[in-house]
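User: Predict the complex.
Assistant: Input components as received:
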Amino acid sequence: MTRQAGCELCELAMPVAWRGEKFAVIVVDDAAYPGFCRVIWREHVREMSDLAAADRLLLNDAVYELELAVREVMAPLKVNVASLGNVVPHLHWHVIPRYADDAHFPAPVWAAASRQTDEAVLAVRRALLPALADAIVRRFEQFQ
Amino acid sequence: MTRQAGCELCELAMPVAWRGEKFAVIVVDDAAYPGFCRVIWREHVREMSDLAAADRLLLNDAVYELELAVREVMAPLKVNVASLGNVVPHLHWHVIPRYADDAHFPAPVWAAASRQTDEAVLAVRRALLPALADAIVRRFEQFQ
């Protein structure tokens, strides 16, 4: 497996919701965005278009299954999906549940925040995270 | 075809680089980001996971081909790919060539700008746009 020394996504030294040979899924610990998840490709690859065709389809499928898990459990108003990697150029996808009352809506989560979401609302969403972890494990069994 | 009255992406009243039955490709007229492109799904669909499987694969392929066209012509340092749709919840993908000297690098283009790119540099990138349009037409012939 191609690894790059010092790359935090190569090291994958973080709690994962699911870990396979080719990719892992994490639930990001983001205070403002409960249910924010990532799919992290295990090899140090820079762009989607650097992947072999079968791997690209596999990663697209993984992002799709993660979107389904997030929709099923978090019931967001919208899902945002992005592969950026400017800071850490190791292929990973953000899958972010968005709500009308979230910190940036309707702007992207990387814009300036426009509000602070009510703490009680965030607590309700945070309470869904065990169910989200279960849904991820269930949906990703197919990739073993 | 499912359309929603008043949706600007249903209307698709803009110059397109390529237009097919299922999706269109546009080169966005963004002063700070020459080569910024979008794939716009023609039907009014909200999320990737609302698409039928064959359509989802088709749209993933379209984003992939657009990424290749952007890399080939614009030679960016990194490509950013995102499906957000919070403002216009009609499925579309951003494909954005990023450079170390662009207005936001390494932050996402939706963050606060950190610099203004030299106008001469932008002019050189803008001069590539006809070649980008050609590359899109050539690469998207397969989808006719």
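Helices of chain B lie at 8-11, 53-74, 119-126, 129-140.
Let me know if you want any component modeled separately.
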